[in-house]
Design brief:
There is one protein chain. The chain is an alpha/beta fold. 42% of the residues lie in helices and 20% in strands. It has two domains: 69 residues, no CATH class; 147 residues, NAD(P)-binding Rossmann-like Domain (Rossmann fold). Strands 7-6-5-8-9-10 form a six-stranded parallel sheet, with helices on both faces. A four-stranded antiparallel sheet has the order 2-1-4-3, sandwiched between helices. A hairpin with a 2-residue loop joins strand 3 and strand 4. The longest helix is centred in the last third of the chain and has 16 residues. The protein starts with a helix and ends with a helix.
Amino acid sequence: MDALSLKTLNAARRERRAVMRITDLDGGDDRVVGDDEAVAGVLGEAVAAAFRSGRSTTVEADGRRFFLNVHLPPPRLVVIGAVHISQALAPMAAIAGFDLRVVDPRTAFASPERFPGVDLVAEWPQEALAAWPLDAFTALAALTHDPKIDDPALAAALSAQCFYVGALGSRKTHARRVERLTAAGFGEAEIGRIHAPIGLAIGAASPAEIAVAVLAEIIAALRSRGLEARRGAAA
């Protein structure tokens, strides 16, 4: 690897950006591309798929063999609300490989006894997220049902282009949430990125089942990043 490629990879790691080193196995040339850079043809399709899966692989394109070495930031999950769903979601998310943080200013809920071994922050989201900034490889799940706590976190997640934004609540509750976010200056397309009611529609009833539905929806969003935009461009 040349010095420039190494410098680019190290910078991307520090800045939590997704990059890939593409090596021509027949010619020996290589280059580093970001997930926002266009790569044409069959190779481009393979590059896009590798970015979504996060798996390095060897592909053939245009009569040549390429090794795609993927470097993705570790995915993060910020859970707003130290509630029963969060208690079930935290260990599941850790097993799935997410760096997890639970945020809730209500100290009666955000206690180490209820969340042993979890990165728990008993602060308002505005304060907690300033110390752990959101980004495109962060998912945010707002679970408190309290607009004073959920709304600032949702606004921050939309502004940061988080790959997943979800909020607990009925459709009626979400309609009121949409009104508040609209008044705060967010557009229809931005608000439309919020998954609400949160979680895949699997008929979940208990807190643990809802946690499964939420995590499944988050993983689906992580592994389909940018797919809708690419389909729209192809159409």
